[in-house]
Design brief:
The protein has five helices and eight strands; from the N terminus they run ααβββββαβββαα. By secondary structure, it is of the alpha+beta class. The two termini are 31 Å apart.
Length: 225
């Protein structure tokens, strides 16, 4: 569903006497529906570390070059790295782990280093969107890692949420909930919460990374939400 189609669904589900032909240049209740839909999608994106908010970065490593400008990742909505370690893919197809550390730790450990000519084993991200390696690479290779994307705001009629289409209706019902709160409409609120709970349940089951079970004992007597 496009942004426009989601807004139109909100209006239908709420029984609103408005016609939304475009998300731009609206006023009154139609403008509120557009705003509520934008807000609903923004809130959903940051609510959990959803699988659909994750992407993979590929960084070419050039022999003799230790510092890499990865500002281009910002155009791919880069927020933060997902994994602690990078994967170094060598030209022969073999792989090696490149550990990620904080810039402060990296700077402390390498400020007196001569940076030997060898395969890198540690990387750090500087605030200037530079990726720093602890050695000078001896051969061309590729670094990969998953990253979390920043949220994006629906703005144009044809903008489409980048999550599975089956869950687009969840945005509409979450927006409908906002309408119901604004208008104090109990019937619309009941429907919105019921349908959003249904979609949300599917998302929590299917769109989250696997849970890793640690060695710490479970805490009893306390309820977590």
């Amino acid at each position: 569903m496009t942004f426009l189609e989601i807004c139109q669904k909100v209006a239908r589900e709420g029984g609103l006497a408005v016609r939304i032909a475009s998300v731009t240049d609206q006023s009154g209740m139609a403008a509120k529906v557009v705003d509520w839909t934008q807000e609903a999608w923004s809130e959903i994106q940051v609510w959990r570390n959803w699988d659909f908010m994750r992407a993979t970065a590929t960084i070419p490593v050039v022999a003799g070059t230790r510092t890499y400008d990865i500002a281009a990742l910002t155009s791919s909505r880069f927020a933060s790295w997902d994994n602690t370690d990078f994967v170094l893919l060598r030209a022969d197809g073999s792989r090696a782990r490149v550990a990620q550390t904080s810039y402060a730790r990296f700077n402390e450990d390498t400020r007196f280093s001569d940076f030997p000519l060898q395969e890198p084993s540690i990387a750090a991200m500087a605030a200037s969107f530079q990726l720093l390696l602890n050695t000078i690479p001896i051969a061309n290779a590729t670094l990969t890692n998953d990253y979390w994307k920043t949220a994006f705001t629906l703005a144009l009629d044809t903008d489409t949420p980048d999550m599975p289409v089956d869950w687009h209706v969840g945005i509409a019902y979450k927006a409908l909930e906002k309408y119901a709160m604004h208008e104090e409409a109990p019937e619309a609120m009941g429907k919105a919460r019921r349908e959003w709970a249904r979609v949300r349940s599917q998302m929590l089951k299917r769109a989250l990374p696997p849970v890793e079970i640690g060695v710490q004992p479970l805490a009893f007597g306390r309820r977590f939400r």
